[in-house]
Amino acid sequence: FEALSDEELKAKTVEFRERLEQGETLDKLLPEAFATVREASKRVYGMRHFDVQLIGGMVLNAGQIAEMRTGEGKTLTATLPAYLNALPGKGVHVVTVNDYLAKRDAETNRPLFEF
């Protein structure tokens, strides 16, 4: 994914949606979708998800809880399953413990999701 231009990387979303319409599952798309978010994050923020954050994203995607300490990248981790589960076009809700964090993380992640 590093070799893709910005436009090619952005086009992955359209490709994934077309593949979903053709019957492919989110689970099948997960590795490529996570790779897309990881590369987009690197380009937008200069931050690349660590392997442990990718695993955390898989855990969250499976509907389970991933315990992470302060500073371990919960906000960045949540971008992975949020993107994947937004692909069908039905929207995604990310829940956090207070209004401050909800607003902060929405503003923080906006440039990534608008990429």
From TrEMBL:
<dbReference type="GO" id="GO:0006886">
    <property type="term" value="P:intracellular protein transport"/>
</dbReference>
<keyword id="KW-1003">Cell membrane</keyword>
<dbReference type="GO" id="GO:0006605">
    <property type="term" value="P:protein targeting"/>
</dbReference>
<dbReference type="GO" id="GO:0017038">
    <property type="term" value="P:protein import"/>
</dbReference>
<dbReference type="GO" id="GO:0031522">
    <property type="term" value="C:cell envelope Sec protein transport complex"/>
</dbReference>
<dbReference type="GO" id="GO:0005829">
    <property type="term" value="C:cytosol"/>
</dbReference>
<dbReference type="GO" id="GO:0005886">
    <property type="term" value="C:plasma membrane"/>
</dbReference>
<keyword id="KW-0472">Membrane</keyword>
<protein>
    <recommendedName>
        <fullName>SecA family profile domain-containing protein</fullName>
    </recommendedName>
</protein>
<dbReference type="InterPro" id="IPR011115">
    <property type="entry name" value="SecA_DEAD"/>
</dbReference>
<dbReference type="GO" id="GO:0043952">
    <property type="term" value="P:protein transport by the Sec complex"/>
</dbReference>
<keyword id="KW-0813">Transport</keyword>
<dbReference type="InterPro" id="IPR014018">
    <property type="entry name" value="SecA_motor_DEAD"/>
</dbReference>
<dbReference type="InterPro" id="IPR000185">
    <property type="entry name" value="SecA"/>
</dbReference>
<keyword id="KW-0653">Protein transport</keyword>
<feature type="domain" description="SecA family profile">
    <location>
        <begin position="1"/>
        <end position="115"/>
    </location>
</feature>
<dbReference type="GO" id="GO:0005524">
    <property type="term" value="F:ATP binding"/>
</dbReference>
<keyword id="KW-0811">Translocation</keyword>
<dbReference type="Pfam" id="PF07517">
    <property type="entry name" value="SecA_DEAD"/>
</dbReference>
<dbReference type="InterPro" id="IPR027417">
    <property type="entry name" value="P-loop_NTPase"/>
</dbReference>
